[in-house]
From TrEMBL:
It is a multi-pass membrane protein. GO terms for molecular function: pentosyltransferase activity. GO terms for cellular component: plasma membrane. It comes from the Bacteria. One of its GO terms (biological process) is lipopolysaccharide biosynthetic process. Keywords: Cell membrane, Glycosyltransferase, Membrane, Transferase, Transmembrane, Transmembrane helix. It comes from Leptolyngbya sp. NK1-12. The chain crosses the membrane at residues 21-39, 126-146, 158-180, 186-203, 215-241, 253-272, 292-309, 315-337, 349-369, 420-438. Its main location: membrane. This is Glycosyltransferase RgtA/B/C/D-like domain-containing protein. InterPro entries: LipidA_mod_glycosyltrf_83.
Length: 558
């Protein structure tokens, strides 16, 4: 039967099975999202950033731990793990002190993590479960945010399906699944961004003191979760002053932003007084990176929303296929963002305020100072959220005939079918990527610590091994301690003492030696140094971990 001859009653009856099927699919995707987030939660690599979370929440500073371990004694992995667990002799004030020594990280998430550890324990799974909970809470909040964002361009019946589509896409997104399993602030930051953004739109619509107070509170919470929220707040300010002409709204907004900024002044004071520590702790951001690599990372940061693009050192037909799929994903995102520009200006300006400020600022700073701050996908979470909202709106058209389209002509129907195929394509990629990562972590997430299992396996299989390292490797050793056998002994030594200690008949391994240490050891004629592990590198400047084996001449078999 021709669609144009259908009555509203007939069309309604035809859409019921689709609605039921959509609800069943949504329930399935949300259930899979739960499985992906909790599967092997305590088995994946606990890398240095997560070590920093556990260590600071437990009341230890990096300098303190390094000083205690660099005493010339042999230490067991259990001793290193103790610095990552709550102890009765570490008070809440010591946690605050540890957090102020790292002012580049806003403190709220770490304080909440300490309370979480007090309630549920200090195991890897327990610490990470707080991020899992935050990622679960994001999904219903995302549905609400979609209702606020797309209210100007869609009738009320169409808003819930848009939010449901966004929730489904986020539930199985390999990027958001990966960070839901990490003991870092990013899932909690995403939650505060969603709440803050929805509260702003709601306050602008209702314009009551209570709604603006809620916005001020959510903004303050987000500021105390990530310093990058400052840039997001700037984008929101531009949005408000651009689309809100009413003086009462502007007056209420100025009051709310003032309250939030005043509430954030205590941490601004900490940043001011710990500026040297902030500069030292962010040195890596100022490390140069090749322009081509930078552009590739920018594109990669968005492609991983739906497709966990494998990082390979050499090109092959498989790598070419993967790059083609990633290009298709990026094309879909570009089309979705272009369509957002055709919607009412309130929607387009809001998404621009959400997506633009952080990458624009970080890229500009990198261009000026030749750094790589913008090369971290986790810093672009607000932009990734905005892109996901745009894609969700377009994908929702595939299941909403007559709601998002003003016409029932053949062109909208064909467009709906095209987006139905695109939706299936994105969901399929996401499910495959999340399934592949079920027993592993994405390459972009664990940095150089993704090679911990290989290094630990080499050390664990040795007889009475002693793993020695320089004090600069303290955090990497704390991460590696989760994979080491209890029979392994660990010793941190200054470079000056390495030659003397290694010149003995012990089963020594040198963990990630610096070029200076390698040079010094090769100068000792009675000592043989052999590199036994180095991962395959994408570029010569890749940060990585290595392992060397030493043998004293007097101990060699004749």
């Amino acid at each position: 039967m021709d669609n144009r001859s259908e009555t509203p009653k007939t069309r309604k009856s035809r859409t019921r099975p689709l609605t039921t099927l959509s609800l069943m699919l949504l329930a399935l995707l949300l259930s899979l999202g739960v499985v992906f987030r909790i599967a092997n939660l305590d088995q994946k690599i606990f890398w240095v950033d997560e070590v920093a979370t556990a260590m600071r929440a437990s009341g230890y500073t990096k300098a303190e731990v390094t000083a205690q371990l660099t005493d010339g004694s042999l230490h067991s992995p259990a001793e290193l793990l103790a610095y990552q667990r709550l102890s009765p002799d570490r008070s809440f004030s010591q946690t605050l002190n540890a957090l102020t020594r790292s002012p580049e990280h806003a403190p709220l998430y770490f304080l909440l993590t300490r309370f979480w550890m007090q309630a549920f324990g200090s195991t890897v799974g327990a610490i990470r479960s707080f991020s899992v909970l935050c990622s679960f809470l994001v999904l219903p909040c995302l549905v609400w945010l979609c209702q606020e964002v797309f209210r100007p361009c869609s009738p009320t019946p169409a808003l819930a399906p848009i939010g449901s589509t966004a929730a489904a896409l986020m539930a199985v997104s390999p990027f958001f699944v990966a960070y839901a399993q990490e003991a870092r602030p990013y899932s909690f930051w995403l939650l505060t961004i969603v709440l803050c953004s929805g509260a702003l739109l709601r306050a602008g619509r209702r314009n009551t003191w209570l709604s603006w107070a809620i916005y001020a509170l959510t903004l303050l919470t987000s500021l105390y979760t990530s310093l990058l929220t400052v840039l997001l707040a700037v984008g929101q300010a531009v949005y408000v002053f651009t689309v809100q002409p009413h003086r009462s709204i502007l007056r209420h907004y100025q009051w709310a932003i003032g309250v939030a900024l005043v509430g954030f002044l205590p941490w601004v004071w900490v940043i001011w007084h710990q500026s040297d520590a902030l500069t030292t702790n962010t040195t890596w951001m100022r490390t140069p990176i090749q322009p081509f690599a930078m552009i590739a990372i920018w594109l990669y940061s968005f492609a991983v929303l739906f497709f966990d693009v494998p990082v390979v050192a050499q090109w092959s037909w498989v790598a070419l296929l993967q790059a083609t799929i990633a290009a298709m994903v990026l094309t879909v995102m570009g089309i979705a963002l272009y369509r957002m520009a055709q919607l009412p200006h309130r929607v387009g300006f809001f998404l621009a305020a959400l997506c633009g400020p952080i990458p624009f600022t970080l890229i500009l700073l990198d261009l000026i100072f030749q750094g790589q701050a913008s090369a971290s996908p986790r810093y672009l979470i607000p932009s990734q959220l905005g892109v996901l909202l745009a894609v969700a709106y377009c994908c929702a058209e595939s299941g909403l005939p007559g709601y998002l389209q003003k016409s029932a002509s053949e062109t909208p129907v064909r467009l709906q079918r095209q987006w139905l195929v695109i939706t299936a394509f994105l969901l399929g990629l996401s499910l495959i990527s999340a399934w592949v990562n079920l027993n592993r972590s994405p390459d972009y997430q664990k940095a150089h610590n993704r090679h911990n299992p290989e290094i630990a396996a080499l050390v664990n299989q040795a007889i009475s091994p002693i793993l020695v390292a320089e004090p600069s490797q303290t955090m990497n050793l704390l991460s590696l301690s989760h994979s080491l056998s209890p029979t392994v002994h660990i010793q941190l030594l200054p470079i000056e003492q390495m030659g003397t200690v290694l010149s003995s008949c012990q089963n020594y391994f040198v963990f990630n030696p610096s070029p200076q240490l390698v040079t010094k050891l090769h100068q000792i004629e009675t000592l043989r140094v052999q590199q036994i592990y180095q991962p395959q590198l994408i570029t010569n400047k890749d940060i990585h971990l290595s392992l060397a084996k030493t043998q004293f001449a007097a101990c060699r078999a004749p």
